[in-house]
Amino acid sequence: MKGVVVLVVVAWLAPTPVFAQGATQRTPDLDRFRDFVHVAILSPTPYVLALGGGVLDELGGFPEDWTDNHAFTKRYLARQGMGFASDAIGHSAGAMIHHRVRYDACTCDGWSRVRHAMGRAFVSLKEGGGSAPNYSLWIAKYSAAGLANTWYPPSYTTSDIIREGGVGIVIAGALNVLNEFSPDLLRLVGINRTP
Question: CA distances (Å), 182 to each of 48, 110, 126, 144, in order?
Fold first, then answer.
């Protein structure tokens, strides 16, 4: 029953396009929905992150209640669910407060690029220009960690929710750094990627 409730809540929170408009007309809502689908479903990133999180959870024995033969599968699926919930909530919150969820590459050089990338975990761009605290990311990470309480065992406590939300924000910053430097790294190995 808890699983059905989770699916209903996530489906309700997921950004939805305005279906009444013609397919050829591009709207900010439709662009935002396409970004969400690309980031949360079509990109390999959430699956790789869930796998990595599942492996780390397995090695660390988190949560300690999961010890049967399906423990790793539960850990992987729990991480996958938390990642999907985070993306859905983050894009929805971004739409509501008019923040861009997509990472914007820096036009600067050197260590300023690292500061810019990590800083985007704390500062977001507003759709109309300017910057603001990255509320959509924070809401996404802490809400997804709290929502995970529905599928984690009773040993998953408030301190786990706080830790998972904070770690999610730090990981988002680290992924921004990877995103910032990946075109340079790909060029070093002879792969040209166009944005």
Answer: 16, 14, 25, 27
CB neighbours (10 Å) of residue 46?
A: 19
Phi, psi of 118 (to 5 degrees): -65, -35
Whole-number Å distance between alpha carbons of 91 and 50: 19
Neighbouring C-alpha atoms within 13 Å toward the C-beta of 102: 13
Q: Give percent of the chain with pLDDT exceeding 70.
A: 84
Is the bond leading into 15 cis (omega within 30 degrees of zero)? no
The CA distance from 5 to 11, in Å, is 10
Report domain extents, the chain. Answer: 2-12+29-47+77-188
Which pLDDT belongs to residue 27?
Answer: 60
Decide if 89 contacts 143 (C-beta within 8 A).
yes
Please return the burial class of 9, using the count of CB atoms within 10 Å of its CB with bins 0-12, 13-18 and 19+: middle
Please state, in angstroms and rounded to a whole number, the distance separating the CA atoms of residues 111 and 119: 12
The model's pTM is 0.80
Q: How many residues are present in the chain?
A: 195
